[in-house]
Design brief:
Elements lengths: L1 H20 L14 E4 L6 E2 L2 E11 L4 H8 L7 H14 L15 E10 L5 E13 L2 E9 L5 E4 L19 E4 L2 E5 L6 E4 L2 E4 L5 E3 L4 E8 L5 E6 L4 E11 L8 E2 L4 E5 L9 E8 L2 E3 L14 H19 L12
Antiparallel strand pairs: 1-3, 2-3, 3-4, 4-5, 5-6, 6-7, 8-11, 9-10, 11-18, 12-17, 13-14, 13-16, 14-15, 15-17, 15-18, 18-19
Helix pairs in contact: 2-3
Length: 334
């Protein structure tokens, strides 16, 4: 009996220790709270045969945008395909400011307002992103939709500046960093320590590679350990390199002008590479520089005659994110 009691007490003690140590439990540092959802009444006005409904989701990021949306939005609100469309929409709008390929940190948070379409037959589709306020690596990022007088939907940050910047935050979408910029890294092929003058993005073979800014192609061909490599000259003495490609974009050649975001090749493992990834380098006036320190200047400000209307719309969207949230259990609230 005494032995059984001792075993029971030891089990309880170990269990309590695990509960306290695990961040998922109340009272523990870094506890993740479940995402919160607010579903607003369905609009009584039909648009092209569909009803509109606004939804707000708030929570802490998981490992990716997709995983975060999957946690926050059950299939009753948006199915898997529509969640993926929304994830790509958000990542695309933020591609100048946030490099999701570098991963999300513990404590990164989001508050998002979006619209979905509801059909008479019960069909549900993702509509458009209306606003997003994020905290990424301790840095606040915000975007707001604006219905321009000419009928276009355009997006600005909280100060009314265009989201577009001179440089994209990354040349590959939705991938992880396999190796960062370093003055001393053990090379997996050469088996010796040497500088690593760029960032390696692990990605599936064939993943499109895009130039991060307008520029002129200096070279596109085989370059030793880089394998198939593209080098592009940009403004202000900046040059970028994209190595280990599996192929080049059709028609790409030296002296050719390429716009920001243009596909210049595909991820591969050519040259000194142990697996498929993109090796991305940034050189400023000939000096290798950590790509994390790319310029992040503000975008073009909104036209003055639209500023007041934008600020009013921004405040309305902020109000939706400030309202007390409720958990949505059903998608069909008509």
């Amino acid at each position: 009996m005494r032995l059984q009691l001792r075993s029971l007490l030891q089990f309880v003690a170990v269990t309590c220790l695990l509960l306290v140590a695990h961040p998922a439990y109340a009272g523990a540092p870094g506890r993740r709270e479940p995402a919160r959802v607010t579903v607003y009444p369905v609009s009584r006005v039909r648009e092209g045969g569909w009803y509109l409904q606004r939804i707000t989701i708030q929570g802490e990021f998981q490992a990716s945008i997709g995983a975060s949306l999957e946690e926050a939005l059950p299939d009753s609100l948006l199915n898997d395909h529509e969640r993926h469309v929304m994830a790509w929409d958000l990542a695309g709008l933020l591609r100048w400011d946030v490099d999701f390929a570098r991963g999300l940190d513990v404590g990164d948070r989001y508050s998002i307002v979006f619209e979905r379409f509801l059909g008479d037959n019960g069909e549900v589709r993702y509509g458009r992103l209306l606003a997003a306020e994020l905290l990424v690596s301790g840095r606040p990022v915000a975007i707001y939709a604006f219905d321009a007088p000419d009928g276009r939907i355009v997006y600005f940050d909280g100060e009314g500046r265009s989201l577009e910047r001179s440089y994209l935050s990354a040349p590959v979408d939705f991938q992880k960093i396999s190796s960062g910029f370093s003055r001393s890294r053990y090379h997996p092929v050469l088996h010796r320590w040497r500088t690593h003058q760029g960032i390696d993005y692990a990605a599936d073979p064939g993943t499109p590679v895009r130039t991060i800014a307008d520029g002129v192609v200096l070279r596109a061909g085989w370059s030793g350990g880089y394998g198939r490599m593209v080098e592009i000259r940009h403004a202000n003495g900046i040059v970028t390199r994209y190595g280990h490609l599996s192929a080049f974009a059709a028609g790409l050649r030296p002296s050719m002008t390429v716009p920001q975001g243009a596909v210049i090749g595909a991820v591969g493992s050519s040259g000194l590479a142990t697996g498929p990834h993109l090796h991305f380098e940034l050189r400023v006036n000939g000096v290798a520089t950590d790509p994390r320190f790319l310029p992040r200047e503000g975008g073009t400000p909104i036209a003055e005659n639209d500023r007041v209307a934008f600020m009013i719309q921004r405040q309305k969207l902020r109000g939706l994110m400030d309202e007390p949230p409720v958990t949505a259990l059903s998608a069909n609230t008509q």
